[in-house]
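Section 3.1 - Work completed
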Amino acid sequence: MVFKMWRCYAIKALAILGLSTFLVTGMQSSAVSGERSIFGESPPDIERYFGQYWTRLTLGHTEGELNVTYTYSPGQIRSFFSNAEDLRLSVGFINDQAVSVRIHQDGAGFNIPLERFEPSDHSMNIFDDVFESIFGYRPPVTSPVYRQILQPGSLQGTLHTVTYCISQEIAMSYEWISTEDYIWFIRFFQEPACV
């Protein structure tokens, strides 16, 4: 009788150990494979990453191309910036394939918190955090294209635009107003020059 009880407990313990190992291994592999392919994905695929869309705007047909922008919750990206209560994450689609991601507020900018502001570095570390939140991985700092300037700071009135590579075939453009810590928008898009 004692042997049967011991055997029953041993089998349960092994089952629990096996299940625990499976779950831990599964969680680790999903954390490693958290990388999200954004560009070229369809609206339902993007919705799996960012949740139900808030708004949908059809921008029209241009030479047979259907341009649609979906807006989603920015999630944790909001916490990276000050005065970003109305922050939005928008994904632009052409013929149901994602081509760009934009972080913005309608009619207002948002600030990089002073403790995270690095003016000599164009506050790139905070942009790396935004990139990671969107794409599911940190931009590879060892990549030869990382932070390679594609368009040096251009100036139009008080609007300054900077565009650079952040990862293989992905560029980031951002616009700041008057002072480098006040951002008008951040945009990620595919860029063949980033190789």
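Second construct:
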Amino acid sequence: MTAGGVDEYLCWRGPLSVNVFVIGAGNIPLPKEAFHLVGMVPDAYLPYPLLEQPEAVERLGLVSYDVDFVDTSLDLRQYTRAVLRRLCADTRAVAWAAFEGTFHYDELLTDQVADQVYGYCTTGAEPVVEWDVTALRSEKWRRGIAGARAALDALLSAGRSL
């Protein structure tokens, strides 16, 4: 683990747990094999199709994944990037990685939770992952999250016309 790094916060319950969300890929979770990436195989894969979705979200689907690794010496930055890329690969979607307990429908990728999001991706773009906790509090990071939120708003608006 790195000092001041995100991984300190990913192992609050024991294993390293990467928490990712995706809107736009439907409500049926990907199989666990889809998370065997960059030479890493998770020790646990826990998909959660989220309930009580707002209408605009439900049309597109929202799934949360907790992907756990027992080996706390792993550097999961590259893995997080690969997961985000995978989640946005087959459909128009927005995906993000955030600390456990930060999810609320009213605050998806908003400024209020920007420092709790450590990675994001939109279809057609390269994933952005930040592993330095200080950088997550920066104005530059908030601007990046605002861009991801704008992509999410566009996706939700397009979903209304479906």
